[in-house]
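Why run this: before we spend reagent on co-expression, it is cheaper to look at a predicted model of the complex and decide which construct boundaries make sense. The entries below are exactly what would go into the expression plan.
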Amino acid sequence: QITLKESGPALVKPTQTLTLTCIVSGFSLSTNGVRVGWIRQPPGKALEWLALISWDDDKRYSPSLKTKLTITQDTSKNQVVLTVTNVDPVDTATYYCAHRPSGYDSPFDYWGPGILVTVSS
Amino acid sequence: SYVLTQPPSVSVAPGKTARIICGGNNIGSKSVHWYQQRPGQAPVLVIYHDRDRPSGIPERFSGSNSGNPATLTISRVEVGDEADYYCQVWDRTSDLYVFGSGTKVTVL
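The model came back. Tokens follow.
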């Protein structure tokens, strides 16, 4: 079955770079049409889509955060990595990675449990 | 950028019907997905492509999108349905993904 799991630091200091890793299983990142996205949720607030990477290495970013985000994948390690540069306390959130299957306009059908990241000095 | 609007909260008695709306410009031309998020848990897909249910989701959950707004309907509401619900679309014009502001469903 499809599973995803996020890992990374629980606490980072302002101005540092945050690196989050999503380990996936039950599917291949190189399967035609497959995509993995990152979504975050500040405490008590709504979900916010951040970035998405496709099987062919195509990448999409939220326009409001484009300059801070980089998404990459290592298909041999079944992992997707998101980096967030120059973090600020407003970047405090639970970060989720999610699987988007092939197919036109498909949803995020499987999600990782999420990782809470706090930005504080 | 594309915006999805949801009411902050909906209250419903057990056994009754809850309707959660999701508004957006020309939303009827888009495919709407709905997610349930219980406290402290990751979101779970409950409706995709406006009205389809993933396996394991009860038939009590249904969706429609024949115009503005799109609607998630929960029939015969149970205490376990108490959660936040989010709508989501893919804006094909910009190739970006948008989530609604979320609706908290409280079972009285």
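The interface with chain B takes residues 37, 39, 46-49, 52, 60, 62-63, 96, 105-109, 111-114 of chain A (CB under 8 Å). The mean pLDDT of chain A is 96. Bring this page to Monday's planning discussion.
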